[in-house]
Write a structure and sequence with these properties.
single chain; alpha+beta; 50s Ribosomal Protein L5, Chain: A; 31% helix
Amino acid sequence: MARLKEKYLALKPQLQEQLGIKNPMEIPAFEKIVISVGTGFAMKDNKLIQNIQDTISAIAGQHASVVEAKKSVAGFKVREGMPVGVRVTLRGAKMYEFLDRLVAIALPRVKDFRGVPRNGFDGRGNYNFGLDEQLIFPEVNYDSIMQIHGMNITVVTTTQSDKEAFALLEAMGMPFTKERTNG
């Protein structure tokens, strides 16, 4: 079992008491994590798209898929069927393993890291944040990178409340920025 899943199972009673939840089925949990990269800068370069796909697959530990444009948009010089992104959805054990690596290894390697922003919640209990480069992950081979790119990470929880999702992520060790006090 993943280390973070064991931690979550141990923290469930504490979360239930902290949030004042009566039904144990309502305790917030992780549903999935989606890692995505917009590749608009590489639409015509298939080798670069393949390199990005390989990099995201290595980071996630699961095969990433290329997202193609559904409609043509003349203003962006996009045709239907052109590759516009790469994404992977993690669930179960791989989700917990990725979150563990993200919190314990990758985020501390970010230059001048002060924490992930607190305002990434969407109002429905999901948390989004972006990373500027893929090199913070130890799985990435620096020599095989063709271009440095960022990525968006979405953590989807079973709760509909941002407060409960924040409590879950904070209990699991997500390093949020410190709140500023005036004065």
